[in-house]
Every structure is written in C-alpha cells, then in structure tokens.
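Design review, sub-item: ligand-bound model
Attendees: FS, YL, KQ
YL presented the inputs for the copper (II) ion complex:
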Amino acid sequence: MGVDRREKRSPRRARTLMVAGLGVGALLQAGLVWAGPLVGTSSFKWASSSQVRALLAKDNGTAQGTTVSYSGPVARVVIEVPQPEFPFPKFEIDHLRNPTLVLPAGATVKFTFINRIKDFSHSFQVTKTAPPFPMFPKLQPVMAGTELSPASTGAKVAYANFTWHPAAGHYYYVCAIPGHAKMGMFGSIVVQ
Ligand SMILES: [Cu+2]
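KQ shared the predicted structure:
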C-alpha cells in the first residue's frame, strides 16, 4: 500500500524519465508480459541515506581490477544502482561497475539490492542465460531475485535482501527491464 502511494507521487517526472531513457512505459509493460512471470519477487524495504551507508558497509568482498571476490561461509554482496544512471544504467558493487563476482561453491550468498534511482525501477536477476541480451531478455532466473524494484522517492531508498545457495558454475546477474541488459546492465558470476 505504502509503495503504491509513493509511486504515484510524481507521475509527470516518472514519465519524463521513461521517455528520456528508453522511450517507453508501454515497452516496459510489454517486456514484462513478454518475459512472463519471473521466479518470485523479494519484498522491498525503505532506507534513509545513513541506513544505505550501513548496508553498503556490509559487503565483505575484496575488489581487485574488475573482480570482487568473496570467501568464507557467508558472502555478503551489496549491489546498488547508483546515480546518475545516464547515459547507461549500471550495477555497482564495491565501487566497481558491473564487476565479475567470484563466489565459493557451498557458501550462503546474502544479496542486498539497492535502487537509488528516483522514479525509475530496475531489477536484479541471476541466470545462466549468457549475453548478448536482446531488448526483451528471457532470463529464466535460477533464484528468486527482484522483478521491478520500487523507485526510490524523496529521501527514502528502496532495497531488498535475498539469499542464494549456488552450485558451481558460471552465471550472470542481469537487469530485466527492457533494454537495460542490452545496454550493458549485467555482470558475470563465477562460483567455484
Ligand atoms: Cu535496469
């Protein structure tokens, strides 16, 4: 209920951003219909900017080059969609843009996904489907990630937590919003 109210608060700005970005509230809707139901959606919470800083500090990876590596039984991976998102939206983890994540097989992976963008949604899906991604990617997610995040609004930032117990393999994390993965909003995950 609260989310619905917030999303309705500045429809004109939301529309402007959609048109400026991909051109396409309608495309967005069409893409979600086309892609079919994804594997479940996490429930979103709201954080103040100081709470967001505390969430970001929980990441226990080590960034080096274009890779963030995790070790130990619990990997805490904190992903944000930072501002500005133009010209291309992106994920950021440990201050790296769309890094490759290296995770130990058998670990418990605790993801936190933070969407800092006002009036625009993103998503975080984990899939074995490899790039290149089309405008409307069919991802077949291997875990419950997020579908549409609520857009952040005012001083409050939307975030969600979800957990993964990965088997060894090569995966990708991808934004399922039409056009975003095509523009590069994805990264690799190596579980070994
Ligand atoms: Cu996106």
